Task: structure prediction
Amino acid sequence: MTSYQPTTPDLAPSTSQELLTVPQVMVRLQLDRSAVYDLLRTRQLASITLGRARRIPAHALADFIHARLDEEAA
Result:
């Protein structure tokens, strides 16, 4: 008799769907907390709010960096 092993979907987010915390963004951008919140407040960096938690999609951070690089190159 074989036992049934339910398959669980891969719940780990892909890189493009990853949600970052403010401290993670602080480390990646090497900025302090107030600078990151200024970027969020001025909507230069997109974010979502889940309850009281602020999360930044990894793709939004990548888009922000690419936009800044394009500005510098122009």
Summary: The longest helix spans residues 58-73. The first strand starts at residue 19 and ends at 20. The chain is about 45% helix and 15% strand.
